[in-house]
Amino acid sequence: MRLYRFQQSFRWFGPNDPVSLSDIRMAGCTHVVTALHEIPNGEVWPFEKIEQRRQEIERAGLKWEVVESIPVHENIKKRSGDFEKFIDAYKQSMINLAKAGVKVITYNFMPVLDWTRTQLEFELSTAAKALRFDMIDYILFDVFILKRPDTLYSADVLEKAKERSWSHS
Predict the structure, then answer these.
(1) Domain that holds residue 138
(2) Do 3 and 41 have their domain in common?
(3) pTM (2 d.p.)
(4) Is 61 in contact with 25 (CB distance < 8 Å)?
(5) Beta-carbon count within 10 A of 97 CB
(6) pLDDT by residue (tens digit) across 88-135?
(7) Both 151 and 129 in a single domain?
(8) Which residues of 56-71 are buried (b: 16+ CB within 10 A; e: fewer)?
(9) Number of structural domains, the chain?
């Protein structure tokens, strides 16, 4: 039987995040969940960059054992173009992360974009802010801004998206 230990962790978006590692530590966390956001999708995450980020986190008194996420290149999702090259890069990034002690790799396999939320500062009744996803807003973005075919959606949700778009004009 395998026993899992739980850590208090916090999602950190890297050195440009307005929430500092010190803030995270003061909140009682022992770990951060982060990624190398500066590396373009499809490129190998070099061991040296991973190790540099790990050391930065450890200097702040925290640990990095979970990455969220190595972005999955669109060519992999669609199995098109030079997708095999991107699979090899993804595998090498996983090897490099493991070598640096990162034990868990999560991924987002979302279509169109790697990570989609329709509101980044949705205010809750407590005045706290949260991320939010609204399907109708997403359809507005997908069909009317990206101009992708609307055949993916039922007629009733397309109608709701059209109504919402006209109410915001």
Answers:
(1) 116-169
(2) yes
(3) 0.70
(4) yes
(5) 24
(6) 999 999 999 999 999 999 877 666 665 677 888 899 999 998 888 888
(7) yes
(8) ebeebebbbbbbeebb
(9) 2
